[in-house]
Structures are given as C-alpha cells and as structure tokens.
Amino acid sequence: MLDRIIEVFLLGSFYCSISIGLNFIFGITKIINFAHGEILMIGAMIAYYLSTCGMNPFLTIPISMLLTFALGSITYKTAFEKISQNEMSTLISSMGLSYTLMTIVRILLGAGYKIISLPLPSISFFGYYVSLTRLMIAIIALATVIITHFFLKKSLLGLKIRAVAQSTLGATLVGIDVNKIRLLSFAIGFSLTGIGGVLMGLLFAIHPYMGGFTCTLAFLIVIFGGLGSFLGTIIGSFVFAFIQQLTILILNPGYTYAVAFICLAAVLILRKEGILGGKFAL
Amino acid sequence: MKNILEVKNLSAGYGEIQVVRKVSLNVPDNDIVGIIGPNGAGKSTIAKAIVGIVPISEGEVIFNGERINGLKPHEIIKKGIILISSEPSIFPKMTVRENLILGGQLYKNKIEDNLKNVFRIFPILEERKDQRAETLSGGERQMLLIARGLMTNPRLIIADEISAGLAPQFARFTYQMLSEIAKNGVSVLVIEQYVQRALDISNTIYVLENGSIVLEGPSHEVAKHPKISEVYLGLGGY
Lengths: 282, 238
Fold this sequence. Notes:
The complex is a heterodimer of chains A (282) and B (238).
Chain A: H1 2-29, H2 36-52, H3 61-80, H4 87-109, E1 122-125, E2 128-131, H5 132-154, H6 156-166, H7 168-173, H8 178-203, H9 211-225, H10 230-250, H11 256-270
Antiparallel strand pairs in A: 1-2
Helix pairs in contact in A: 1-5, 1-8, 1-9, 1-10, 2-3, 2-4, 2-8, 2-9, 3-8, 5-6, 5-8, 6-8, 9-10, 10-11
Chain B: E1 3-14, E2 17-28, E3 32-36, H1 43-50, E4 56-63, E5 66-67, H2 73-79, E6 81-84, H3 96-103, H4 111-121, H5 123-127, H6 138-150, E7 156-160, H7 168-183, E8 187-192, H8 195-201, E9 204-209, E10 212-218, H9 219-224, H10 226-235
Parallel strand pairs in B: 3-8, 3-9, 6-7, 7-8
Antiparallel strand pairs in B: 1-2, 1-4, 4-5, 9-10
Helix pairs in contact in B: 3-6
C-alpha cells in the first residue's frame, strides 16, 4: 500500500509540473493554449541537447525557463496580442502554433526518439525503492508550485498579475499596463511549462510528437481541478494520480485514463467549474 | 480660476457608434463639477474617454495644461486622474489591504503613508483590511473604491455614479466624503443620474442628453431651470 502512496506523491507532483503553466496562462489571459504540449516538448528538447554537451539535465532548467520565456514573449506579441479578447481566435491561433512548433522541431531536429541518460541510483524508503531521479523531479515540481504561489501572493508583480486576472477594468483604473502584464503572464506560463518539459524529458523518450497526449493530460488535470484555479491544479494533479493508482490496484493498468476521464465527466456534471474553479481562482 | 481639466469638442464612442458628440466642459482646480443626464445619455462614455478607455474620435482632452488624447489609460492615471467607476472594478478575491496596495502601486515608496492616510479617512477599512473585498457590503465596497483611488495621489477624481445601488445613508456618506476630499486640494467631476445629489455637491453642472451638452451653468441656476425642476427633479431626485 505504501508503494502506491509514494507513487501518488511522485506522479501527482510530476503532473503539477506539466499542467501549472497551462492554468497560469488561462487564469490570467483567458487564452486556452493548445500549444502547451509543444512547449513541454521544447523544454525536453532543450534539456536533451544541453545534456549531450555534458550538462547535468537538472541544471538545464534555468536555461529552459529563459528560452521558453523568450518564446512566450515573442509568441504573445506576434500571435495573440491583437486577438487576445477573442476566445475563438486565440484558440485557433494556439492550435496553429502547436502544429507550427511541432513541424519546425521535426524539420530542424528530426523525428527520432531521444533519451536523456541520467544514471542515478534508487534509494530505500521504508523498504521500498524509489528512483532518485523521480524523487528529484517531485521535489523540483513542488518547489516550482510553492515558489509560484508565493510569487503571486507576496510580490507586487504577483499582485498585479492577480489583479489583471480578477478585473481588467479594475487593473486599468489603478494604472496597471494590462497588456504588459498579459504578455509577462503568458511568458511566465511558458517558462513554467519549460520546467515541466525538462522534467518530462527525464522520464520519457523525447520526440516532436510527444506533446499531444501530455497536452490532453494537462487539460484533463486543469479542468478537473478548475480552470483558473492554482490550488485546483495541485489538487487535480494528486486526485488524478490517486485515481490512476486506484485503478491499477483494483482494475487494470490499461484502464487508468478511461477511468480518469469518466471521473472527470462525473465531477463536471456535479460541478461544472471543476473541483475548485471559481472559488479559488487567481 | 485655472482649469485642471479641459474637454474641448470631444466626440467618442464604440466602433462606428458615436455616443458623445462635440462635448466641451471644464473642471476648475479644487472645484466640484457635475454631469447629469438620463440613462444612456453618454455620461460614463465621457468619463471613460477622458481616462483613455474609450477611443476619442474628435476633440481634445487637456489635463493640467497637457494634452492627454491618445495616451494609454495607465499613462493617464499616472498623471493624476482617477476614475471611480460604477461598473464592478474591485479585486474580489484580494483583501482590502491588497486592493489598496494595488491602488498605490504607481508610488511604491509612498504606499505605507498613503495607507495610513486612507485608513484615517475610512477607519472601517482598517478594521476590514484582512478581509476579502468580495465579503464587504455595497457601501464598504464603494468606500474601498474611493480609498483605492486616493492611493494614487490624484489631482482629479471622476466619480461615475458611485451612489448607484447604495442605501440612501451610504450614498449621503459617500458624497460627504467626496466633499471632504475636494476641500483638500483634489478636483472632482461627479457623474450622476440622481440630479439632486449632483446639484447638492457641485458648483457647476452640465446637463447631457443624447450625447450632447444641452444646459450648463452654476448649480443654483441650473436647478431653477424649468427643464431641470420639472423633468428631472419633478420625476427623479431622491
């Protein structure tokens, strides 16, 4: 039983890291980013290529954050700024971005699978062996969530970001440059996704198409927890990991995603905003 | 008296729809001026055009001697104009204190002093400082909006129907507060649908109908005009 609990902790933390950026962007800019999976993939690619140069993959995180931040800024300026008030247009634009990024990466870096080699040992935990890589991933993921939380709650920039999320008119009337904050938030969201991408690259084979399913997974978690709710994403991640482990325990590992989607549908029937949507929004 | 705000032949609206046409008005320094008119006359559009939220198609807005047409809203707010809107604009999930800090974010080094000042004017907000803004009553929210505006050290307050939806005692209190604030060197442009409230507080009144100024003058004279006494005060008022 303990091994399942440990697994829920490790998986849940990892899920936080791959979904937090998606909800951050939606919560503030109301843009549904269908290119989320491709940003994760780019983060993983950055980790792979830097690690082939001899860099410890964990140390590639700041570089991945920086590059994805820059990508987010450019993307917002070119593809979203003018249409940011139109939900349907931003949706189509993000879909276009998804295919564009996937195609560019395939042309430039090839479609082959890439693996990051990180020979770390496992450590014993009450008689169960836990991979040190996965433990590090969980710690980094949770640290990212906690730092982001305090950044939003305690810093003046975080307050401004939350202000724009809660009332665009109010933010305008107190003299906040709303468009600049939207741009920054979009770029920070990409940057958070860049962290998730590096962590994902340490667990899975890296290729240009890896973002598709992960994007679906991130959407599932975010909708489950509540669109726009930071705490909801964390709860959604761990509940999703719990459902997976429960399914493995009492049904069959092959049913995990099907059961998770059924649970999501059930939650949405009972609460259309997800578990915490609306109540604990940014 | 020097004018802090001069609006000259202002036309503004949404897309191709011109809501206000060739409106001119002045707000003298340290004075209270009112704009009255029925629903849909374009009162709020004038306010939003002054602070850059609604685009100006024609005319000029001069604040403190400087033309501010075309500036972005945050640039205009920084110059010392604040708009207290009747539309919901508090940050509901934030505490009262966080709302106020955001009001003062343009002057980071003065935030603590400004907080002390607004808590002195609105002691109830100090009592509620750690409460989420969404838990405040309607009157307290209005106080919060005024206090948040004061955090920006404004030279001009545009109060757009700030008594809308308030109980009469809260509405009276809100206007008393505006009068007090105006005595301390802040000019006020009051936009009101309830004519008597605007007449009571303002020295000069502009009457707006269908996007144009149809009557203007000192409040006591405008109040005696047949149009106002019969049409507005006869049917409207408190």
